[in-house]
């Protein structure tokens, strides 16, 4: 099951796919844009109020809605999505501005020199450009509290490491392709590590347990730089 390819305010209608018996995937075509992601967040907030809908799970350029088939049937849920989509406001989700202090380079950012070599900048210039940008949290995934952010200056894009690390330290700030992010927990990973923050990104005992959430704007602040 899929929808047509019409557009609403330059944002295409989602393609709808049934996942199993109790989940509906609302998928937008690539590339992912902030306007499309904002509309996904707005749909997620809207759908939380619908009877029969369980979890609303925003992804990159998509949204999964779990539902109780005994409370709402697929045709009704589909109709609600398509009816709501043109009425959604892309600016309905107002994210916070969160500043993330970072110790760049040295033992905290062992790949800073490699990113500098790839981009042709000095390590100090990489840090300057990384901290000058404002980022938007598109989604949380991969690990609890791991935020995929848009907004990395394109000149800082750097491929992932050829050999991933078996254990990336928690709170490491990295660059992976065209994105930047923070590892909340010790984990295998292949992103280029340029620094580390003292802030906990995931605390299962806190409410909410994640420091960042979709829609938040992020600024990195250099606490120290070792080049």
Automatic annotation (TrEMBL):
<keyword id="KW-0378">Hydrolase</keyword>
<protein>
    <submittedName>
        <fullName>KipI family sensor histidine kinase inhibitor</fullName>
    </submittedName>
</protein>
<keyword id="KW-0547">Nucleotide-binding</keyword>
<feature type="domain" description="Carboxyltransferase">
    <location>
        <begin position="14"/>
        <end position="212"/>
    </location>
</feature>
<dbReference type="Pfam" id="PF02682">
    <property type="entry name" value="CT_C_D"/>
</dbReference>
<keyword id="KW-0067">ATP-binding</keyword>
<dbReference type="InterPro" id="IPR010016">
    <property type="entry name" value="PxpB"/>
</dbReference>
<dbReference type="InterPro" id="IPR003833">
    <property type="entry name" value="CT_C_D"/>
</dbReference>
<dbReference type="GO" id="GO:0005524">
    <property type="term" value="F:ATP binding"/>
</dbReference>
<dbReference type="GO" id="GO:0016787">
    <property type="term" value="F:hydrolase activity"/>
</dbReference>
<dbReference type="InterPro" id="IPR029000">
    <property type="entry name" value="Cyclophilin-like_dom_sf"/>
</dbReference>
């Amino acid at each position: 099951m899929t929808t047509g390819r019409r557009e609403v305010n330059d944002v295409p209608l989602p393609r709808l796919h049934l996942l199993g018996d109790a989940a509906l995937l609302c998928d937008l075509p690539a590339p992912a844009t902030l306007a499309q992601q904002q509309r996904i967040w707005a749909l997620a907030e809207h759908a939380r109020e619908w009877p029969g809908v369980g979890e609303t799970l925003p992804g990159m350029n998509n949204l999964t809605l779990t539902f109780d088939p005994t409370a709402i049937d697929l045709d009704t849920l589909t109709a609600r999505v398509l009816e709501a989509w043109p009425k959604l406001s892309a600016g309905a989700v107002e994210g916070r501005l969160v500043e993330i202090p970072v110790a760049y380079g040295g033992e905290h950012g062992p790949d800073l020199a490699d990113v500098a070599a790839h981009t042709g900048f000095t390590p100090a210039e990489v840090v300057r450009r990384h901290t000058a940008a404002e980022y938007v949290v598109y989604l949380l995934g991969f690990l609890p509290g791991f935020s995929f952010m848009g907004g990395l200056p394109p000149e800082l894009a750097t491929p992932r490491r050829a050999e991933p690390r078996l254990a990336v330290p928690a709170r490491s700030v990295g660059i992976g392709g065209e994105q930047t992010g923070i590892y909340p927990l010790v984990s295998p990973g292949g992103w280029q590590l340029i620094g580390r923050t003292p802030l906990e990104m995931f605390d299962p005992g806190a409410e909410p347990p994640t420091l960042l959430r979709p829609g938040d704007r992020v600024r990195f602040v250099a606490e120290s730089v070792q080049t």
